[in-house]
Amino acid sequence: MAASVVVRRLAALSGASAVAAGAYGAHGFKNSDPDDYQRVLFETANKYHFYHSLALLGAAHSSKPAVAGTLLIAGMGMFCGSLYHQALTGDPGLRKVAPMGGVAMIVGWLAIIL
């Protein structure tokens, strides 16, 4: 199977999971203060999850879809995953992973140029 097909399918799964996470967050944090830090973390994670799901669609059409897709997926896992984790558990143990995820997402965007 071509790398572009795999990346496109992963983009679809990522987008679907972003919608599901957004729905969970909308209902799970419904009764919390809008300025609650955990809610803000969850909303930030979900926003970047959506943006980078769309970026994966672009990566599928780049000349190096495996490189761009891998960087974007790894970045989403590290950045969004660590924020989702802290928002849902209150445990800041993975917060040092988020900047590495952010860098991976930036490099993933740049890899689309290749």
Describe this structure in words.
- With 114 residues, the chain is mainly α.
- It contains four helices and no strands.
- It has helices at 3-28, 37-60, 65-89, 98-111.
- Helix 1 runs antiparallel to helix 2 and helix 2 runs antiparallel to helix 3.
- The longest helix has 26 residues, at 3-28.
- It is elongated and about 45 Å long.
- The two termini are 21 Å apart.
Q: Topology of this protein?
A:
Blueprint: H1 3-28, H2 37-60, H3 65-89, H4 98-111
Helix pairs in contact: 1-2, 1-3, 2-3, 3-4
State mean pLDDT (0 to 100 scale): 94
Task: Note poorly predicted spans.
Answer: none
Category from helices, strands and their pairing: mainly alpha
The number of helical elements comes to 4
Task: Characterize the biggest β-sheet.
Answer: none
Principal-axis shape: elongated
Let me know the number of strands: 0
Hey, roughly how much beta strand do the residues contain? Answer: under 5%
Based on the model shown, name its key terms.
114 residues; 4 helices; 0% strand; elongated
